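Team,

Forwarding the record for the chain on the shared tracking sheet. I've put the sequence and predicted structure together so nobody has to dig through attachments.
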Amino acid sequence: MKLRLLTLTLLLVPQLSVAAETAAEPNLLYAALKMVAALAVIIGLLLLLYAASRKGFGVLPKARDGSIKVLETKPLGGKKFLCLVSVRGEEMLLGLSNERIECLSKLTPAKDFSAALQEQLEEGQA
């Protein structure tokens, strides 16, 4: 009886392994569709995060229009800079270094070309 059970088991094991191999055969179409769906979900989440951040709901801060604006910055070497800043319509030239910030000059706002030309023409006629 034990011999028959052992023989039957040895005969059925190869059949079970073949059945398992055919059942576990990968379906490439199914795998590809699954991958494309996962990629679409990830791209959709990234687009939602981007849209939310543009609206101001995200982690990234929105640019604000304040009364202080940095117009231009020029490096002087090392960690020293010249910085042109506009504060409530008044322009200032600042010297920046590691140790301090110093106001070098207060400047008058630059006129546009047409206003300066008109002023020069009026002075020439008078």
